[in-house]
Design a protein that fits this description.
The structure holds two protein chains of two kinds.
Chain A: E1 15-16, E2 23-28, H1 34-37, E3 38-39, E4 48-53, E5 64-66, E6 75-80, H2 83-96, E7 101-107, H3 109-121, E8 129-133, E9 139-143, E10 149-153, E11 157-159, E12 166-174, E13 179-184
Parallel strand pairs in A: 1-3, 2-4, 2-7, 4-6, 7-8, 9-13
Antiparallel strand pairs in A: 5-6, 9-10, 11-12, 12-13
Helix pairs in contact in A: 2-3
Chain B: E1 5-17, E2 20-27, E3 41-48, E4 51-58, E5 69-74, H1 82-88, E6 95-99, E7 113-119, H2 124-136, E8 140-146, H3 151-158, E9 166-170, H4 177-182, E10 188-193, H5 196-208, E11 216-218, E12 231-235, E13 240-244, H6 250-256, E14 274-279, E15 282-283, H7 291-296, E16 299-301, E17 306-307, E18 311-314
The chains are: A alpha/beta, B alpha/beta.
Chain lengths: 201, 316
């Protein structure tokens, strides 16, 4: 049994704008049309920001406002070079924000839970920060033996980048680490490894 | 509302204004006062001849100081007698029976900042809050609304705390509150205590400004059950008919009839006493049911809520 039946794995629903918010910021770890990641932005009554990771050096991270149709508030879009670029600006934004703000994150689990952690550290509650999964199912794996997080595992066994152990990637998810638990596969019979399967495409 | 009582001796009874009197209470048998967190209230059982008044008052004493408990009592014109009794008949040295302190208005410990909005004597729980926040160093801000003639009384009660965090407004116009609510950093929690209409207006304004429900809090004494039109509760399963008097709660009446009904906090907060309503119209006084559940009329919290209709049939 490679993947356990532990059910700490988060369950996601499609995002919808929370109408009670006074300012909204939507984050995506890849370029996607806004309407594809969240419902309700077309009739928003409060300003909406949309920050995406473009994964290219050809963007500058500066805000670009698009006049919206009718009386709707303007949509402010920003494209970032990479995830750390976006998270850095997000930290600054959160430090200046006030109650009434709503945050949304869409992307791979490592990304959305890194956002959730920043949000929690800034004082946001779960009802003010919503997440949804999109893209690859690859996992960040937390080695319970050496505490290293190995990113982007797509297979049932992952080699730990810290100690080299072959880890069974379990369904046991840590919101704190944004990672799944990995336990040495051949701890009892060294070298006796189960076949490796690609299960997190 | 615990059934356990402790005898408390009045160590000091000091008039603060023509209608406000402060009491310092110490355990009559010596020892430490019962523990009470910030926001807790004390229910006093006042024997006035044949009658027993049961009145709840917010504790104003520093929760970390167990040497005494303090309350402030406003003499209410339309009083059923409890506050008048405390103003006229209780003297220093008297012993009063009190329930153990209960807290239906606790501080949110994970809050980054605490924003308090009080009206008149509604300041009282915040005196205990502020003592706690000052000790822990958590940021706080108080907006107090009162009549001009009582400003001095409240200023004196707050005098030992940093003036920069205290804003006293004369009158009941909450107009300036919007500017306050829109500039609060993430992680701030709002607490309001005062006249019901003021609390409602404050909470509604916060909701309109994007404050989620989990950040909006208001005082509740859990005393809401008493007082209201008498009605008859019918327990559908047994067919029992129980008369609920004007000054008893539905839960007390059910218990007095010998029926064991679910309950825990007895203050309309925990949700344990929820019962399905088969017929009749509930008058909701709890803090547990959401808008939709209230509107459906299908449930009632027996500890605090009553009936609008003369009969209320319960699935009990």
């Amino acid at each position: 049994m490679l993947v356990s039946d532990i059910k700490s794995r988060p369950v996601y629903e499609r995002l919808a704008l929370d109408g009670s918010g006074r300012r909204h910021l939507v984050l995506s770890d890849a370029p996607r049309p806004l309407a594809e990641v969240i419902d309700g932005t077309e009739d928003a009554t409060a300003p909406v920001g949309y920050w995406v990771v473009a994964a290219t050096s050809a963007v500058d991270g500066q805000p670009k406002s698009e006049p919206a149709a009718g009386n709707a508030p303007a949509l402010e879009e920003r494209a970032f070079r990479a995830v750390p670029h976006l998270l850095d600006r997000l930290s600054h934004r959160l430090a200046q924000e006030t109650v009434g703000f709503r945050l949304y994150a869409v992307g791979e689990e490592g990304f959305i839970w890194d956002v959730a952690k920043l949000a929690r550290e800034a004082g946001l509650e779960a009802s003010e920060c919503r997440t949804a999964h999109a893209g690859s199912l690859r996992r960040n794996v937390f080695c319970v033996h050496c505490k290293t997080i190995t990113e982007g595992a797509t297979t049932s066994l992952a080699v730990c980048e810290g100690c080299g152990a072959h880890l069974v990637v379990r369904d046991h998810f840590s919101r704190f680490h944004s990672a799944f638990m990995g336990v040495q596969a051949d701890a009892e019979a060294p070298g006796d490894l189960p076949p490796v399967e690609e299960i997190f495409p | 509302m615990s059934r356990v009582t402790v005898p408390l001796r009045v160590a000091a009874a000091v008039p603060l204004s023509p209608t406000l009197r402060a009491f310092t209470l110490i355990p009559a048998d010596g020892g430490l006062a019962p523990p009470a967190g910030p926001g807790a209230h004390l229910r006093l059982f006042l024997k006035n001849g044949e009658r027993v008044h049961r009145n709840a008052y917010s504790l104003i004493s520093n929760p970390a100081d167990r040497s005494h408990l303090s309350i402030i009592v406003r003499r209410v014109e339309a009083s059923k007698g409890g506050s008048a009794f405390l103003h006229e008949a209780v003297e220093e040295g008297d012993v009063i029976e009190a329930g153990l302190p209960a807290n239906l208005f606790p501080v949110v410990r994970t809050a980054r900042k605490h924003l308090m909005v009080s009206g008149g004597i509604g300041l009282t729980p915040f005196l205990a809050y502020i003592a706690t926040f000052e000790a822990s160093g958590t940021p706080w801000e108080l907006h107090h609304f009162c009549r001009p003639d009582e400003r001095g009384v409240f200023e004196a009660l707050l005098a030992k705390h940093p003036a920069s965090k205290i804003h006293i407004h004369c009158g009941v116009d909450l107009g300036g509150l919007e500017d306050v609510l829109v500039r609060q950093p993430l992680g701030t929690h709002l607490y309001t205590c005062g006249p019901a209409l003021m609390m409602e207006a404050g909470l509604e304004l916060a909701a309109a400004l994007g404050w989620p429900k989990s950040r909006r809090h208001s005082e509740s004494f859990g005393g809401a059950a008493e007082g209201g039109a008498p009605f008859v509760a019918v327990l559908r399963r047994s067919g029992m008919e129980i008369a609920v008097g004007a000054e008893t709660s539905l839960l007390d009446a059910i218990e007095a009839a010998g029926v064991d009904a679910p309950c825990l906090c007895r203050g309309g907060a925990c949700g344990q006493c929820l019962i399905e309503v088969a017929e009749g119209e509930p008058e909701h006084r709890d803090h547990f049911l959401d808008e939709e559940e209230r509107a459906s009329g299908r449930f009632i919290m027996t500890c605090v809520s009553r009936a609008r209709s003369p009969r209320l049939v319960l699935e009990l």
